[in-house]
Amino acid sequence: MSNDDGLYHPRVHDPAAGTIPVPHGPDTGTDHATLPYDRNAANEKAIFNYLVKPDDSYNSDGVYWADLPFMKRAAFVGAVDAAEARKELGAIGTMMKADPLSPIGWYFRNAVLPGAGLGLEGYVLFSIGNLTPLFQAAWGSCWNKYQVCSANWIAAVTYMEILGIIVGQVLVGVLGDWFGRRWGLIQDALIMFGGLLMLTASWGLDLQGWVICYAISLFFYGIGVGGEYPMTATAAMENATGAGRVSTKEDRLHRGRKVTMAFLMQGWGQFWNQVILILLMLIFNHSGNPPYSVDMAQWTFRVSFALPALGTLWLVYYRTYKMPLASKQLNMAKKKIHVTGYDTKSLGLTFTYFGGRLLATTGTWFCNDVFFYGNKLFQSQFISVLSPHGSTIMTGWTWNLVNVVVSLAGYYMACFLIDNKLFGRKNMMQLGFLMDFILFVVPAFHFKYYSSIEGVTAFQTMYFLSSFFNQFGPNSVTFLVAAEVFPTPIRATAHGLSAAVGKLGALLASVLYNYIDTQMKFYVVPWFGLAGMLLTLLFLPDTTGLDLEEQERRWKYIRSGRESEYHGVAVHPKHLSLWERLRGAGKYYDPELDYASKINDMREDWSEKQEARRQAEVNGGVFDTEDDYSQHIHDHFTATTQPDKTVASSAASDEDALRAAEKRTL
Q1: Phi, psi of 647 (to 5 degrees)
Q2: Predicted confidence band at 522 (pLDDT cuts at 50, 70, 90)?
Q3: Is the pTM of this model over 0.70?
């Protein structure tokens, strides 16, 4: 029976004969109460509200945060974020009391390890550009004057690296969705390790032969680097989301931060590469000034590649033996839709339903990579002003180091705000593109002044600001959303394709900049920032604060041909692009209909889980209970579901359901 408190109270009865009344006295039915199990709306609300309408996304009246008026929304978001900040600071304090160094261990496990592959590839790829002036100084007849080496092969060093990355992004993206994340992560590390061995030992009968060997080694290494993009993004995201049937608070509030913390290891890789190259030059050359001997160049570049080879070998071990569950969520998603290999149906439906999103992720990444290469234009120009009689290699490396530190500040600021519902991914992307547009277009039309000694300080400031807003904007956001806005079965494919198109932007920049002068480069580059901002505005949905499991629910409906039956927050106008809203994707949003639909979906999932449990018991297998439903939900579904796993009809006796529930609680 139920009282006004909304709980189910068992019938009062005499104590059973023969029971021992300890430790709380004889059971008479008055000593405990449980959540009710009959299927009326009030009872279901008491049981399911904490799952269906979690308090970090819905206010006390059950209204979704994006449906609140702006001032109430700001107050709600501020309160949730403040409570979460207090909780995290308290957890850090507790950790430090137990062990002052434990927060460092937490950061290592949650940021460094997931992003280790990107950190190592950031180190190596940044090294290629840093080593070029050293090669030009040590082997001028080959790398500078092209007397003993082909100019085409020297240029091919950059092209081969980018082409290898493109191949890896597309190939491993598809294979990662086909065979699993763990397989992709392991093979990426193996390829990168082999590529580093090739780079460290690259040789030739003459300089031309060495350049060819060096370029081929970079192509091979690039395949592993390319695979790191979709594999790291999807693995970090699915680890943040969890493999369970109900997404976690951690996913909703910190998914973006978790992925971006892994991605910013790329910045730390660049930092350590520059530090190590400076130290190696000081060790082998005894100073940063010329002349630069061939022996010094040999030792410097080979040792600089050998060090990350050791780290990559450890990464192979870690991914092989310490990441057994990296593919868990992908496997669960495939199991639900009865797919064992590659989900070609989901790929086709993605082009149909998420074509605008694919245009956004590929187009914005393309524009960003043109900018990323364009950023180097500032440095070469202001160094030529500050050092009119020529600069040393150490001068360029030192300014590189300062720029990397500024970039790291941008990465960390992105981590701090990328999950804030009032700012979030989309606004961050547009702001970054807009600022880079301004910071390039201003010197383009006043080039003479900014390239003079009078304007060089302002020129340097714009250079560092462009680096900051590139990271606090498109570079961080493109990496995240290219995985986040697509369904699990083809997530790595979509991310790899987006990243590959982005690298085409880098290839365009590296080719185009060889044929136009410096001022013309400044005229060309800004418009890619404007284009990126417009693509973001029109075609990119804002997934900030969106429960990723809701997107998976929506995809389940789309894949089964029932798009119109999905009414949840994944089609809320806040989480759709302008293009999707114009096409009517948000017309099915209905919180009331979705509430009942979500409980029915959970009931179906629970029934499948019970059947899987029975099969495991019959076959003697092991059943995974890690993400099992709570006991209250289990009892409710047991009491209101017929043994044949169909939902109990309205004619079913509430009395029978109550008796079954009471029997379990006694």
Answers
A1: -70, 140
A2: confident
A3: yes
